[in-house]
Write a structure and sequence with these properties.
The protein has 318 residues and is of the alpha/beta class. It folds into two domains: 13-121 and 193-317, P-loop containing nucleotide triphosphate hydrolases (Rossmann fold, 3-Layer(aba) Sandwich); 129-190, Histone, subunit A. It is built from 14 helices and six strands. Helix 1 packs across helix 14, helix 3 packs across helix 4 (111-119) and helix 6 (144-154) packs parallel to helix 8 (167-179).
């Protein structure tokens, strides 16, 4: 995949803001966008789904009215939204933003989406419906963690990249490994999607990070706010609306723990600790992933959104 052309024939230039969840990316991005006349392109695998608002900390309607946002609420919560879908729609959004003479600001914490956008994607082999049916049956019977352990034996690189609860992607990785002559991680390595080649866009990449103890405290507070804002109610409403339990939307931290508690007959408000624990683990995986991303300028999120925005705008100008 080559970089999309913009009207003057040069490649689009992106401002990219990444980092672990809870570091204030959303607030900082809004402050930057106001200063640069920018528009925000989401880079979050769960915020693409409509109806998942509380547990994804989506920006409010008022904030979206003040600063245009893209790649938020673009998929039905009952449907699958793939990496290829993201790259295609993000390309369209970036082209339109640049065409209006504004700055595209890519913001989020899904490293896989960012890497696909910047490096392109390797087309996945066609699905094997029978193998997929068998794998999903095994997942239902034995649980995602058991399939994750199996994947770790035959494709350890993919298992390392995927959360043990991510049934959809674990199943797909197993399907590729069992149905062909190579694993998915080998294809990514050999075809250069992640490690080689010119990036598809010019960019300034800025990462936000925070002291681990301070970030953990923020994340615990974040979980409390989710409950106060109605996480349990929203999960029940999604179920009532017909969103299947195996939907990609329900793989998000927060929703999946509440859903598990509901299915097991437990009080979903007692899932707080599990959500906090899994959120902390996820933030560490994000930090590890983004630290491997090339050419990122790292800033201390403790400085606060306005101060960070001033620094980022200065870097952008240079």
């Amino acid at each position: 995949m080559t970089a999309p052309e913009i009207p003057n024939g040069s490649r689009a230039r992106l401002l990219i803001l990444i980092g672990p969840t809870g570091t204030g990316k959303t607030e900082t991005a809004l402050a930057v966008a106001r200063r640069l006349d920018g528009e925000i392109v989401g880079c979050d695998a769960i915020q693409v789904y409509r109806g998942l608002d509380v547990g994804t900390a989506k920006v409010s309607a008022r904030e979206r009215g003040a600063v245009p946002h893209h790649l938020i609420d673009v998929a039905d919560s009952t449907a699958a939204f793939t990496l290829a879908d993201y790259v295609r729609e993000a390309d369209v959004a970036i082209r339109s933003i640049v065409g209006r003479g504004r700055v595209p600001i890519v913001v989020g914490g899904t490293g896989l989406y960012l890497r696909g956008l910047m490096r392109g994607i390797v087309p996945a082999p066609p699905a094997d419906p029978e193998l997929r049916r068998r794998l999903r049956s095994m997942a239902s019977r034995f649980g995602a963690k058991r399939l994750h352990r199996w994947l770790a034996r035959i494709d350890p690189a993919s298992a390392e990249r995927l959360a043990p609860s991510d049934v959809q992607r674990i199943t797909r990785a197993l399907e590729i490994a069992l149905g062909g002559e190579t694993t998915w991680s080998d294809r990514l390595r050999d075809e250069g999607t992640w490690s080689r080649g010119v990036e598809r866009y010019h960019s300034l990449k800025v990462g936000l990070d925070l002291d681990v103890a301070a970030l953990d405290a923020r994340l615990d507070e974040r979980v409390e706010r989710f409950y106060e804002a109605g996480l349990v109610r929203e999960t029940r409403e999604l179920l009532a609306a017909g969103v299947p339990r195996e939907a990609g939307a329900f793989k998000a931290i927060g929703y999946r723990e509440v859903l598990e508690a509901i299915d097991e007959g437990r009080n979903p408000f007692e899932a707080r600790e599990a959500i906090s624990r899994n959120t902390r683990r996820y933030s560490r995986r994000q930090r590890s992933w983004f630290r491997s991303e090339p050419d990122v300028v790292w800033l201390d999120a403790a400085a606060g959104p306005e101060s960070l925005a001033e620094r980022i705008v200065t870097m952008w100008a240079r």
